[in-house]
Amino acid sequence: MIKEHKEKLKHLGLVTILLIIAMIFWRNHSVLTQLDQDKSLSRSSGNELVRYHIFDAYTGDDEKVFFKVSDNVERLKKFYNSLVTNEEITFIEMGFQPISIENFEGEAKFEYGYESGHNGENYRTENREFTSVKALHYNQQLIDSFELELEFGEMPLEENFNLTQNEPISVILGSEYKGTYDIGDTFMVDNVGLFSKCKVIGILSENQYVLNQGHEVDLNRSVLMPSLNIEESPENQWERNLQMRIYLQKVNGIIECEESSVTESYKLIDELAKDAKLKPYGKIGPFVVNE
User: Which of 104, 141, 137 is nearest to 15 (CA)?
Assistant: First the structure.
């Protein structure tokens, strides 16, 4: 199935390297942020709903080694499946890795890094031009937990989170995309090396946001990409590396539980990671959910 979506890896060029660096930076940033964990702990009655972030330990040389492990994808998928099926916790997928859109006609404000003074990275391959833009990779639980609302269109269905042969990926756009794309528009996207057609199914209402480590992240200028599930096993090294990148992103997310059960859920995450033969996961939080 993936063969229907991909182009040869040799055409990725600089952008794939930049996207992988962005993923490594995001995880390294999470590791540094953990040093302030004690400061982020919120005091409450113990029955408050809280969220805390989990992140993998595969950075630098450890990540290079893990890329060479023969069953790395299988380990990540096992851990991911245990997170989403365990009834003691709620797992929210939330990743901010940029995507690249072909022949992007939007304003510079949508480009990745715009707010910090850096324009999105553009690249060409076989006379095709791609621009890096802000994105949020999410699952259904993120929409439910943060109560995101649409101004136009419809929310994704369960099947929209699966990579399906010959079917475009359903995306939702932030409110400021109005006038740039409309419901039903399609465009090609490079998502960490996976080239796919995307179709706009919804546009968010104004001022929608998510909370990342207790801080609001504005979604007005973001593309909401469903965090894709890939049921097929990789058939070659290219597919294994692709699924590795996708699932490393998918298993860095948010755990939602009652504050009184945080310690137990920490232990649960450690047990699930160990059972999947993964290194212990880092944790940041908890942060009280303001209802």
Answer: 104
CA–CA distances in Å: residue 65 to residues 9, 270, 277: 20, 21, 14
Q: Report pLDDT for 49.
A: 92
Residues in the chain: 291
Cβ atoms of 136 and 95 within 8 Å: the answer is: yes
Under-50 pLDDT residues of the chain:
3-4, 6-44
Q: Are 72 and 245 in contact (CB under 8 A)?
A: no
Nearest to 88 by CA among 288, 261, 259, 282: 261
Q: How far apart are CA 77 and CA 134, in angstroms?
A: 26
- Enumerate residues 6+ apart whose C-beta is below 8 A from 222: 134, 135, 136, 173, 174
220-261 pLDDT, tens digit each: 999 999 999 999 999 999 999 999 999 999 999 999 999 999
pTM metric for this prediction: 0.83
d(CA 240, CA 73): 7
Q: Name the helix (H) or strand (E) containing 200.
A: strand 194-204
- Which DSSP letter does residue 92 get? E
Tokens 């990148």, located at residue: 245
Helix (H, G, I), strand (E, B) or coil at 234: coil
